[in-house]
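#onboarding

Welcome to the new folks! Below is a worked example of what a typical request in this channel looks like: someone posts a single protein sequence, and someone else replies with the predicted structure as tokens. Don't worry about understanding the tokens yet, we'll cover that in week two.

Example request:
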Amino acid sequence: MSNLSRLTAAGIIVSSATFNQADQATLDSLTDDEVSALISINQKVPASFLQQHCGVQTAQAAPNVRTIGIVF
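Example response:
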């Protein structure tokens, strides 16, 4: 399963998303461990945390869509 397929199945990327070549290359460059970590984080971080700290409006404004803010 591709990284895009795994992230879409996990609800991190919406199925209607489109990617340019550079974005696709970024997804393809993720290791299995990195994809698994993103999925794990998405499952563990509650929506209320994302709303409070990551600029997500409300769950009602975008049901079934969650944003992950990653700071480096």
